[in-house]
Structure formats: C-alpha cells, structure tokens
Amino acid sequence: MDRYKGACFCEAVQFELNLKNLDLTICHCSMCRKLTGSTGFASLEAGESLHLMNTDGLSILDSSTVGERAFCNKCGTSLFYRFKSSNEYFVPPAIISDLPEENIKLIEEIFYDNKPCYYEFSNNTIKKNEADFQ
Ligand SMILES: [Zn+2]
Ligand SMILES: [Zn+2]
C-alpha cells in the first residue's frame, strides 16, 4: 500500500497515511456542507493509518456521538473525519500530495437525500440516503 503525505494549506498540520483504495465518497449531509462551506465532504478511506507529523495548527471538533472532525486553526483547512468507535479516518483528496488523480473514482454519494437541489454530480454513483445509516 502506498504511503502518502498531506498537509493543510499553511502546513501547520502535516500527516502521513495509507489509502484503502482510490474510491471517492461524497457526503451531502448538512453538517459536512456547513463545516466545509462547500457542496459536501469528499473523502478517501485511510483506515487507522493516519499519522500526524505536525500538530501546531490542529483542532478537533467533537461533532457528534459517532465522529469527530479536524481542521487547522491557523488557515481553516478542513482535514479529516474520524469514526470514534473504529478509529477510522476519512480524508479529502485535495490535502493529500502526489495522488494519482487519474485513478481516483467518485463512486458513492451518501446522505444523498440531504443534498440541496441546486447541484447534481454527473458521475454514475451509488447513492445512499440518510435512512440507510440508521
Ligand atoms: Zn493550516
Ligand atoms: Zn456528512
């Protein structure tokens, strides 16, 4: 498995990780959209492999009973989602260096029924709704 390096915009948070695969998931839930200020939280699965190298800017938000999110408190970059029970990390591709982008595939959209009507990805994806997670 390839080891990748990553960092926030200002590099006050730096990390290394392995990726389980290059299958991209986008979460459309309101929390992900609010916390990224974007169309959703796009992430790759890093399992338990994320290792922090520089934590100068690291802040952790205890965002729900199941998960926490990290961001850089110096530049504001959204860093990762971590499942508390399994210690699995989900990391946005844009903060990982030297990814083979041509091999990344957007395969899944979750909390699809939480997506606002004003955008739609054209990729042929597996779509899961909020009820699929209850
Ligand atoms: Zn930063
Ligand atoms: Zn979400």
From TrEMBL:
A GO MF label: metal ion binding
Residue ranges of coiled coil: none
Domain of life: Bacteria
Keywords: Lyase, Metal-binding, Zinc
InterPro entries reported in the protein's UniProt record: CENP-V/GFA, Mss4-like_sf
Occurrences of domain CENP-V/GFA (ranges): 4-113
Family annotation (Pfam families): GFA
Family note: Belongs to the Gfa family.
Name of the protein described by the UniProt record: CENP-V/GFA domain-containing protein
Species in which this protein is naturally found: Candidatus Enterococcus palustris
